[in-house]
Write a structure and sequence with these properties.
The complex is a heterodimer. By secondary structure, chain A is mainly alpha-helical. Chain A is about 80% helix and about 0% strand. The longest helix of chain A is centred in the last third of the chain and has 39 residues, at about 195-235. In chain B, helix 3 runs parallel beside helix 5 (about 140-155) and helix 4 (about 110-125) crosses helix 5. The chains are: A mainly alpha, B alpha/beta. The interface of A and B includes residues 137, 139, 231, 235 and 248 of A.
Chain lengths: ~250, ~240
Amino acid sequence: MFSIFEILRDNWLLLLIGQYPNGPLGGIACTLILSVLGILLAFPLSVLLALARLSPWRLLNWPATALVYVARGVPLLMIILWVYFLVPLLIGRNVSGFVTMLCTLVLYEGAYLAEVVRAGIEALPKGQMEAARALGHSHLGAMRLVILPQALFNMLPSMLSQFVSTIKETTLGYVINVPELTFAANQINNQLLTKPFQVFFILAIIYFIVCWSLTRAATALERRIEARRAGPRRAGTAPQPTVVVETLAAEP
Amino acid sequence: MITFSNVNKWYGDYRALADINAEVQKGEVVVVCGPSGSGKSTLIRTVNRLEEIKSGRLTFDGQDVHAPMSSAQLNRLRSRVGFVFQSFNLFPHLSALDNVMLSPMHVNGVKRSEARDQAMQLLERVGLASKALSYPAQLSGGQQQRVAIARALAMKPPAMLFDEPTSALDPEMVGEVLAVMRSLAADGMTMMCVTHEMNFAREVADRVWFMDAGSILESAAPESFFKNPQHPRAQRFLSDLRAH
């Protein structure tokens, strides 16, 4: 037990930011930046993929469907290796492990999020699209102004859980030398040689704290959204909760 | 204003509309009634092409609705047909005011300040100016339907279509919606209403169309339709209504 604190005391900076500023930014910082960038870039891709999947136009529908099925039907590690070997061939020069991992995550998470977005859109009552079209909005106009603002808001908890998955998936960056948290932990293990259990225990605890708190946040968010959905219906007679108005007003 | 000539519609083998020939004149209020499944809603939904037709010709304000046209043309056409749904279909993420402002701004390109003024006037007209900033979930069914009417009116349509506008409402809320529709009729709006409110038909309608099995079996002025229905199916329908 004591050695765990000793390892933490000696290596906390490495776990936090890797070898920065003497080397690339690593550790938890790298893991979080990779996850945040991954999900942020995957999000617009997923909306486009979902819209293409829902389009009656085959030229859009088929490639999007194929991409989503392939990305979801292949292990993530396989995609990482593909991107790792294929991207340098395609663009003619080497890219860093970080960029490789980011590309992979965007592709992989984009495919998963696309299905979340699609489900969110399809879960809305049909009358919403119909009413927008009856008022003269185009299909895309109705999507932008009426459907997506509602669907994306309802999907916030799912997106947060997807973010948690992304954090866990960044560990695989280890195999292509991305200096993220797992990589940092392994460096420490290689230095100490005799304390693998303690080192990887620390690693597990850090991942658990980050992911668990985010999962809790997702659950809390889900409850708030559920309360918002159920609340105002009852508020037909009762005074309106002001929180509800605030959350609604904050929507895009 | 709205003419149907030999309009036919099929759902697979099922004939939803059978040789519809009818006309709604400018300024006229037509109530479409009949048993459920008779094709009333299908008929009204063909007018703004929410439903396609198989054959025949349907014109709205002189324009052939089901002619081949670009989606931009169809959107422009739809923006000129006011449509009120049974289930209101207000946009729940927008306030009443924003619901009414949205389409004038984004479809017709009206400036925000102008759209806001107009929307406030319309909400005033349906008696809901004080609820402008409320969200649909905070409004009663009757209030939601009145906002939906204001939203349709905001596009300045030459005619309004109502698809069972009071069927999803609690009984005590039907009156407020019908009152708004009455005042629209009094202002000379061309209206086509699918409804089961026979008192509304009797007092407000210029003509009543009785439908069954996809056909208009009888088209008559309300006094004569309610006093002296000609078609046996209409007689049976009215006596069934009176039995309650």
